[in-house]
Amino acid sequence: MIDWVLGWVNTLLQGVMLGGLYALFATGLSLIFGVMRLVNLAHGDLIVLAAFVVLVLMRTLGLDPFLATLAAMPLLFAFGYVLQHALVNRTLGRDLLPPLLVTFGLSIIIQHGLQEAFSANDQRLNAGAIEVASVQLGGGLAVGTIQLVILASAVGVILALNLLFYRTELGRAFRATSDDPEIAQLMGIDNRHIFSLAMAVAMVVIAVSGLYLGMHASFNPTIGPARLLYAFEAVIIGGLGSFWGTLAGGVIIGVAQMVGAKINPEWQHLAGHVVFLAVLVLRPRGLFPRAGD
Amino acid sequence: MALLQAHRLTAFYGDFQALYGIDLQLNAGETLAIIGANGAGKSTFLKTITGSLPAAAESVVFDGRPIGGLQVAEIVRLGISLVPEGRRLFTSLSVEENLKIGAYGRRDAGYWSLARVYDLFPALAERRGAPSQTLSGGEQQMAAIGRALMSNPRVLLCDEISLGLAPIVIRNIYAALPEIKANGASVILVEQDIVQALQVADRVYCFQEGRLALTGRPGELSREAIHTAYFGT
Description:
The complex is a heterodimer.
Chain A: H1 2-36, H2 43-61, H3 65-86, H4 97-118, E1 134-138, E2 141-144, H5 145-167, H6 169-179, H7 181-186, H8 191-216, H9 224-238, H10 243-263, H11 268-282
Antiparallel strand pairs in A: 1-2
Chain B: E1 2-13, E2 16-27, E3 31-35, H1 42-50, E4 60-62, E5 65-66, H2 72-78, E6 80-83, H3 95-102, H4 114-120, H5 122-126, H6 137-149, E7 155-159, H7 167-174, H8 177-182, E8 186-191, H9 194-200, E9 203-208, E10 211-216, H10 223-231
Parallel strand pairs in B: 3-8, 3-9, 6-7, 7-8
Antiparallel strand pairs in B: 1-2, 1-4, 4-5, 9-10
């Protein structure tokens, strides 16, 4: 009996840990959607791209993955600003289709560009000893140190974004532009600049996502769209525009996948999608919808 | 001294022409009222001034400088601020955050600050932390005016600020006008409430179907002239 209980506690624990990773994937997507109402279909591929940038910096500068990610952040911040400024801003308007098509095209370009540059082989971001370290929780339960670091990073990223959004002038401008772009301009806010900054900040979050994507498991240029799917489900479950909701959404999908896998290993991904659909039916606006949405 | 001038100003929504060559002048320290029936082009006129609708460069001159066709955000920074029709407060921002965002594009300190807006509208001070949606209509209108004042505008454009409000609330809001004018703002009021507009305005412009139908000082205009200009025939 006690083994049975511990087995399930362990499953839930692993699910929460996995949820931390999904929440990280989802936070960048949530930020972009929250500020400019854009579903970035290239989000998963941008995470993979970030992982490759970290990989290249590790190889060329001889850095460990964490330092390489720190070095990648300013590069990706600048890349995000330019990407939004030069490309995505031109597609935003009343019609919802152009940004979807352009980010879909971007997704394909990134996948094939990365294959051209790095081949389709699996890669990893090797972090050394931390990868096999674990923390004993008593009762035979243990979680991987790296899993704990990922979950803590997800919470840290969301805390930082909440500070940015609710305690700074830039955050106020982000929220005002999201509420009513037309009136935001009447406040002297340059929407296109604000959108470009939002994408730049999202790329910093994506850098962290890419780091843990490559540390948690192997990756290759084609796995982006599946990350997008988990991220999208986490955002919808949490409620659009709420970062804590996104964390909850990630954890719910992680737990559902682990529970599904425990019942039958083939059900892992199915279970996540079923829970997503169930939330969509019961709470179409998500669990923590923002006022006014 | 002309602070803001419209010169043969036209405006279009696609193929539909909404303004047919409006000439208008706002002098420093003045309060103008623009009156007219629904669809006369009053709000359209304000939108061309703020840059939300395109205008030829020379057709809007502010402080001697052509500003037609500039970006909306640039025009605000020059010192023209709009209180939009229907208040349009930011729903996910608190009352105080709505006021603070009004100062977003401001370069230098001026008369208006959070404290001075709260002095002008004490009701807002009590609700400063509240979500903007929980305010009454009158309080929302005060917040929208306060938000526009936070940029320390030299021209304050007010679009239908009495719409949907009780007479006593309208009186409270109009009571703030002298202090707003005393501290550096010239005002253009767009109103459907003619009585209210004639009471506070130095001069009145009456629009009819995108054209200027009548202009003058309130005391010099007869009821019949206004009636004709307002409704046509």
